Each structure stands twice: as structure tokens, then as C-alpha cells.
Amino acid sequence: MKLFPIRGGIHPDYRKELASEKAIVSLPMPALLYIPLQQHIGAPAEVLVSEGQTVKKGQMIARGTGAVSAPQHASTSGRIKAVTQIPAPHPSGLAQTTIVIEPDGKDEWAELPEPIADPFTADAHTINERVAISGIVGMGGAAFPSAIKLNLGTQKKLDTLLLNGAECEPYLTCDDRVMREHADEVIDGARIMAHALGVPRVVIAIEDNKPQAIEAMTLAAKPFAQIEVVGVPVQYPMGSERHLVQAITGRETPAKKLTADIGVVVHNVATARAVHHAVRHGRPLLSRVVTVSGAAVRETNNIEAPIGARVSDLIAYCGGFVVEPASLVNGGPMMGQPLPGLDVPVIKGMSGILALTAAEINAQPASACIRCGTCVTICPCGLVPVEMAAFIRKDNFEVAARLGVMDCVSCGSCSWVCPSHIPLVHYFNYAKGMINAQERERRKNDQTRVLAEAHTQRVEAAAEAKRAALAAKKAQATAATATEEKASA
Ligand code: SF4
Ligand code: SF4
After folding, report:
1. Does residue 373 have its Cβ closer than 6 Å to ligand 2?
2. How far apart are CA 279 and CA 116, in angstroms?
3. Atom of ligand 1 nearest to the CA of 413
4. Could you tell me which CATH class the domain 16-28+119-290 is placed in?
5. Pocket lining: 382 vs ligand 2, CB cutoff 6 Å
6. How far apart are the C-alpha atoms of 235 and 3, rounded to whole Å?
7. Residue 390: CA atoms inside 13 Å, Cβ hemisphere, count?
8. What is the pLDDT of residues 27-63, one digit of tens each?
9. If DSSP codes are grouped into helix, strand and coil, which group holds residue 430?
10. All structural domains of the chain with their residue ranges
């Protein structure tokens, strides 16, 4: 297949060798599971259970609410110990509502939905409904509810499902292992998704530094002419949705548009596996593979962990730390977020837990910009990071927005290359948060203004109606008096 070059990009030290040869192992069931209501983009789920209640494995314990949401399920059987607030795996460390389950050790399944025996004769709605009630969200890290993306075939003209197996973030190897060890499940999930989307073509893109994954997936895809497995160059951030679409199709996603607007829907390989489980076996999303890596951890691993196990459970399984980590990261080192501590739970979008030493993070104090322009040369989105940062420093978000900060995919490449060690991507994440907050505020004010105007109109209409009724009454009374006077004359 002809590949198209992507702009910019970098070649960090990938350090995949730390965990890539570690086969997936299952985490022994922890003493407690912590299942947050918000593990996805959208509205948090709504609790369906109460303290003291017993639950079975796979039972829905919180249902999705609103148009964009996802339900949560019990990862094993046990008793609801509490519905409480605990810190989320987010840099803010803010508490969020979480269901705490005390496993009973029986791992007893709830009654599951019937498998869809032949998904290729089922309609798209049936597949999407199954994916939605199974709580499946994008497992590459975005955690967007997958059923909504699978429904795009009804709204857009699509031609390709692109399965993202690039895994371009350094250290992470969970997708590599899923493709090597569960290729048949991934391929089956991809075929089901393509059927739901109504697309004739599936491309599975894998970075060339995963030859065994390419081989396993190629073998599993062999019987299906619609599927093509493609090795793509090792170039960070090749795994960013927009860049992968460009590398495979040559099409560029316009600003403020989705890849679906140019005919391509992208899903992660682990998401495809979850779809296979939900459709073929009726099983909701109860676990995920997490890479535990970094030089500070005693033993690196790729661990299939139940959703709700704590980071500390996985670290303990890996033998703890050899040195105190200088940094704990949720995800990869480029786009991941700092972990606020070890007590936070594994959630559906958590692909990695990195315990990095000071030498690995190589933190250096920032100094003044030397106007070298390197950040401009490597930005894969064609932005001018140095200029955007200068305006953000002055809190001028309007100009930063005009310069395209909202198109920044937060890949961190500019920060990585900057010889002055300026944390550019932090500026952009901050600005995007501020611009989104301002936009929300503006929408709220617009809504309030519309409501206030409607209220004023209603009050004026009521007053007008009252005046008209009074006038009519008065006219009636005058007419009656005139009739009486006429009669008595
Ligand atoms: S973080 Fe944003 S500005 Fe920096 S290189 Fe990546 S896309 Fe460009
Ligand atoms: S890479 Fe750093 S020093 Fe060079 S222009 Fe960009 S911000 Fe300035």
C-alpha cells in the first residue's frame, strides 16, 4: 500500500524493549475494587446499586445518562462496600463518585445478554446497542463512548475503518501484546465494527517496530479480503488519529472537523477486542491490559487488570519500586498525565502506568527562548508553538486561538525538542482549557439571554392580552350602557 508522509514528528527513545517481551498476565483479584462513575468523555454514569448489596460479575452497577455517556459494570462478584468519593486518576487528584466492591472470591457471572450468533446478519442498531450497554469506550486513551463512533455510518459518508495499532508512545506495549496474543479477537471485532459502520474496507495500521504484531495480525486477517494490515513508519505521533488517517489515505482532516468527515472512522485495536467480547459472548468491558514500565519499577509487565484495581495493586504485583520514582505517569511519557498517587484505580482508558527515574525524565529548568524555530519545524500540525506560547504567557487566548491552539493535538513534540526546555505543551493544554471554559461561559450567557428574552416576550404578550381583554370588556360595557339608554329613551 502506498503511504503518505506526515508533517514533522520526532524520534524519542522508545524504550519498548523494557516490556515488549512480557506476555500478558492476569492480576490476581485485589481485596477491593474502586469503580468510578466517570471513566469516559461525557456525562458520568448513574449509580444503580446501594451499600451492602451483592453483585455478580458483569452486572451493570451504574447506567449511562444522556446522549454521551457509558455504563459501568462489576468486574467481579461481591458486595458493595460503599458508594463514596475517592481521588480520580487525573492530575488534579479531585475526588469523584466511586463504587467500591469487596470481591467474594467466587467470580460468579451475572446473567449476560445473549451472544449475537451471526453479527453480519444483524443490523447496525443491534450491534451499537450491544456495544453501548457493554460500557465500551475508546481504549487508546481517549475513552470516548465507542457506540457513538460506531453510529457515524448513519450520519456521514464513510469508506474506511482504520484500526489504530500504531502505539507510538514510548514505553507502552499493551496494544502490541494484545495484537500478538489475541489477533483473532481483534480481527473479528474489526469485522463487526466495519459491518456496523457499513464500510467496505478495514485498514489496520501498526508501527514497523512491532514486527511480531504485524505478522500475527496479517495471519489472522488472511481469510478476509476486506482487511489490510499495514506497517507504518516509526515516527511520533504517528498514532494520533488525524496523522494516521493522513499517512494511510493521504487525506487531511480539516480544522474543527472529524476524520469521519473525510470518510474514515478510527478505533483502537483493544477496543475492537472488547467489541468481539461484547458481541460474541455478551461480556461487558470488565478489564484491560495495562503496561507497567519504567526504570523505577522492579519488574515491568503487561497486566490484564480488572477495572477498579488500584495502581498500587499493579505496582505490588510488579515487586514494588527499586528506587523512588521521580515521576508517576498515567499513559505514555509524551501525552500521559501525572498520577496523583498510587491509590487511584485503573480505568478503561488507562494504557500504561510508568514509574520513571530522574534520569528517564531528564527534567531541566526552563530558560529563555532562543528563537531557534525547532518547535515550528517538528510540529506535526503545522503550528507555530513559539508564537502561541508567547501570547498564552500574556493570557491572550484570543490570538492563541487564531494561531490554531485548538488544533494542537497535545503530542508534546515541541516541548521534547525545545533546547530551552520550555514546557510548551503545558501552555497549550492550559490555553485549551481556558478557551473551552470561556466558550462554555459564552454559551451559558447566550442561553440565559435567550431565556430572559423569551420570558420578557411572554410577560409582554400576557400584558397585551390583559389590556386587550380589558378594552374588550370596556367596549362591551359601553355598548350595553348605550343599548340601555337607547331602550329607556
Ligand atoms: S504539542 Fe501541539 S504545538 Fe506542540 S508539537 Fe504537538 S501539536 Fe504541535
Ligand atoms: S524550540 Fe524552544 S527555544 Fe526554539 S523557538 Fe521553540 S520555544 Fe524557542
Report:
1. yes
2. 6
3. 5
4. alpha beta
5. no
6. 13
7. 9
8. 999 999 999 999 888 899 999 999 999 999 999 999 9
9. helix
10. 16-28+119-290, 366-489
